[in-house]
Amino acid sequence: MSLFGPPNVEKMVAKKNLKGLLKALVYHRDRPKRESPDYERSRAVRRMAAQALGALGDASAFGSLLESLRDVCPKVREAAAHALARIDQDRAVTSLLGRLKPEQTEACKSAAEALGHLGDARATEPLAALLNQTQYDTLLAAIEALGKLNDAKAVQPLIGALIAHDYPARKAAVSALDRLGQPEWKEWVKGDENDFARLGESGDPRALAPLSNALKTGSEGSRRSAALALGKLRDPGATGPLLVALGDRQGKVRAAAAQALGQLSDPLAVEPLMTALKDSHRDARRAAAAALGLLGDIRAVRPLIDALTDDGDWMVRKSSAEALGNLGDCRAIEALIRALRDSDESVQLAIGEALGKLGEDGIVALLNVLGSGDPEIRPGVIEILGKIGDARAVEPLFEALADKSWSARRAAARALAQFAERQPAAILKLWDKIAARARQKHNDVEAVFANCSHYGHVDRPHKDTGIGMEFPDKPQNTDF
Do residues 382 and 408 lie in contact, with contact meaning Cβ atoms separated by under 8 Å? Predict the structure, then answer.
């Protein structure tokens, strides 16, 4: 060892000076950067010493080289790994595999990195087992090492770990897969918040593994995103993981799982989703109702009716009504008619649209309600019939223009105006009479205020039957 500068490794090699090389291997290794004036030179000395010891092939250097796997310099660590392999490949691999103990973080990390440098396929399974570790440095070292092994068996574990971790780890996994001949993952996983969505939209069945893994082990946000992505993926294999996620501890994750199950068209999801209609989280109940409507299984009719009738959340009731309309089962008509008294207007409209989807029987039921004269639900039914646009409603709507309730008259005029816009032929014979009634002004000021919800009053009869609404003129060309 020189007294006036760094060790001369070349001279040591020439003299096969094993003792000198072992000292050079640790030259300034433990000194902080600022305390070493020849920091960069000392790193080069240690790297050259490791290379020389590998070339020398003396087994007595094995332990010292193992310690150099924890050197602060990556190039020194790489040189030490290759030197160990040159001395005894089998011994090196066996020793490094024995150090893959997650509880010993630093040793495990350095061993994983070294195994990547060696490129020995015997390390694939042990390294893959580290991908479930939460210790970040160990995880990253294992990912990078697997990418260097050139072993096809490393592909699937890396895919499974793609989005179960944070952004840097995802990018490392993508780079590793690229090295293993899987460049397409770069298009889907970019290390940002849209990774899940891109994987789902890819339609690639290989995306099932990472998404399922994230759904099981990720954070709350990752689990939710993974569930939604599995719905987009539409892979039948996603049903099992999503059914498990219906029992997730977080309501938003359960809701995402229910939503995704509705996109998979798997009858196995029907009964679990029916149970989810009783979930404690409203988003989960709403998503379950919507999913049941998409699945189209009539077993869901009774539970959806119960949700429409009994659930305390208007969004759940609205989703239940929409689902009943999608199922198309006429057994729901009576319950839908009763539910027209719902306190929420959006629920009432959803019920009307559902009845419209139930065909002849649904329309007849609405017309019967319109003819019943029930002032509480009559305006809502009139609005619904206008949205549905069935020509059989024209005559009853015309009659409603003379209703005692101003809000009912105005709703009828608006409904008929929709016919004028979309189906002018349906009101052609009555057009002039409809327009005259709709445009007729009313003078009961007290009644106007009474119908204004801002004042908190309920609708009550007018002294006149005016509406005071603009109505389109009858078209000159009636050749529809």
Answer: yes
Q: What digits encode the pLDDT tens for the residues 269-280?
A: 999 999 999 999
Question: For position 192, what pLDDT does the model report?
Answer: 86
Tokens of 244: 């498990």
| Per-residue pLDDT reduced to its tens digit, 409-444 | 999 999 999 999 999 999 999 999 999 999 988 665
Number of neighbours of residue 448 by Cβ within 10 angstroms: 13
Residue type at 306 in one-letter notation? D
Structure tokens at 39: 């920091």
Task: Give Cβ neighbours of residue 362 (< 8 Å, ≥ 6 apart).
Answer: 330, 333, 336, 354, 355, 356
Contact present, 367 and 333 (Cβ < 8 Å) = no
State the DSSP H helix or E strand holding residue 97, giving kind and residue range, or none if neither.
Answer: helix 74-98
Q: Range of 394's domain? A: 364-480
Is the CB of residue 7 less than 8 Å from the CB of residue 24?
yes
Q: Which of 81-95, 311-325, 447-461 has the lowest mean pLDDT?
A: 447-461
The answer to the question of residue 400 being in a domain is yes
Tokens of 241: 């993981």
Number of domains in the chain: 1
2 contacts 8 by C-beta, under 8 angstroms: yes
Is the residue at 417 inside a domain?
yes
Single out the residue of 295, 253, 241 nearest to residue 273, CA to CA: 295
Report which residue type is found at 267. Answer: P
Per-residue pLDDT tens over the stretch 371-395: 876 777 888 889 889 888 889 999 9
Distances in Å between the Cα of 137 and the Cα atoms of 23, 130, 142, 461 are 29, 11, 9, 76
Average pLDDT score over the chain? 89
Task: Note the Cα 266 to chain centre separation in Å.
Answer: 19
Nearest 5°: phi and psi at 456?
75, 15
Question: Among 27-41, 274-288, 436-450, which is the least confidently predicted range?
Answer: 436-450
Burial of 315 (0-12, 13-18, 19+ CB in 10 A): middle
Q: In this structure, what are the phi and psi dihedrals at residue 183, rounded to the nearest 5 degrees? A: -70, -20
Structure tokens at 64: 């010292």
* pLDDT per position as a tens digit, 441-459: 866 544 444 444 433 444 5
Eight-state DSSP code of residue 158: H
